[in-house]
Structure formats: structure tokens, C-alpha cells
């Protein structure tokens, strides 16, 4: 295809992806009420604490409520329409890939997407503890105001960061497949990996919430060793193929 034909195809696929996103946002906008209720669970728990004056989420402008619903609708609509826009991206780049690259890409997506949602699930379990712990530092009898924008940004970024952290082991396996690192190389860095997981969990969660920190740290460490095990299996299969092809002397 010529450059112009590629640009026309790109425009077509972007238009389909944008239409799917708009439809997803419309659907998500309808269900924003229960989503806001779900996100407000930690706030209601804090409000029920004895001796705590609380007014709920703080909306300071006329359009605040609409703005919050639109932001939620965009995030949820992006997830709802993900199968469509992911396929459009894939269909655009697939003709330029080899069969091997296509197989690896499917494997990467098949592992990364579930791990990302698993990370978001863990983050959602940890989130109420984080908010409750931080609320304990507010003096007794004082009112605590949660600005809707800051609260939503905190929740969204927390889910996003933990979700991405769960996908990082997939990149280790990808580096192994690309021949950049062997499984043994990844395993040799286990001390540094555990330190990084610990520091990340400590920074992401409040210092007083040890349970949330341990849960997040343990999940990331398990995924690291799982990536190491998978990489070592790939290395073993690669050595067997090389031996069978006579690319190197047989150990026997």
C-alpha cells in the first residue's frame, strides 16, 4: 500500500475506534451513579466513625457533578470499548508483522490484559484501607472535606499505577523472548527485585497501613518469580531446539 492508502486506512480505523469510545461513554454515563456510590464506600465508612463530622464529597462549582460523571464515563467507556479500539490498532499493524511476531503479540496481550485488571482489583481492595488510614490523621471533631476532583484523581491514578505494576513481569518475559535477558539473569536480580517491590508498596500505600503494603508487595513478588520461572522454561525449550538443529555441541 502507498503512504496515502495507509493514511486513509488509519483515518478509517481511528474513526471506528472513536465511535466505539463514544458509544462506550454513553453506556458508562448511564451507570455513573452506582460507580460513584462504589467509589464513595471508604468515605461513608469514615463518615460513620464516632466523633467525626463529615459532609461527603465536596462539589464547589455548578458543573462539578457533570464533570465528575464525564470523567468517570470516559474511563469506563475506554474499558467498555477496549475490544473494538484494540482490534483496530491490531488490524492496522498486523499486516506488517511476521507470523512469529503475531504469535508473541497475542501472547503478550493475553497475559498483560488479565494482569492489569488483576492489579486494579488488588488496588481496589487496598484502596479503602489507604483512605481510612489517612483519615485517622485528621484531628477528632474536625470536618474533613474531599474535593471531588482530587478524590477521583487519587483513586484513578492509584488503580492505574498498581495495574501497570502488575504488567511489568510480562515485560521481563518479553525481554527474555527477545534474547535480552535469560531466566537466570532475571533470577540473579531477585534481591533487587524484592527491594523494588517493597519500596514501591511502601510508597504507594500509607506507612501506617502495613496490611495493604504486605498484600501489594507479596502480589508483585509472586508475579516476579512467576515471570522468572516462565523465562527459564523458554530458555530450556530454546536450548533443546538448538541441540536438535545442531547449532551447538550436545551436552551428552
Quick structural overview:
It is built from ten helices and two strands; from the N terminus they run H-H-H-E-H-H-H-E-H-H-H-H. The protein is mostly helical and 252 residues long.
Structural features, described:
The structure is a single chain. The protein is mainly alpha-helical. It folds into 2 domains: 1-96, no CATH class; 97-252, no CATH class. Helices cover 78% and strands 4% of the residues. It has 10 helices and 2 strands, in the order H-H-H-E-H-H-H-E-H-H-H-H. The protein has helices at 3-30, 32-39, 41-47, 64-80, 82-93, 99-135, 148-177, 183-188, 190-204, 210-245, and strands at residues 53-58, 143-147. A two-stranded parallel ribbon has the order 1-2. Helix 1 crosses helix 4, helix 6 (99-135) packs antiparallel against helix 7 (148-177) and helix 9 runs antiparallel to helix 10 (210-245). The radius of gyration is 23 Å and the shape is flat.
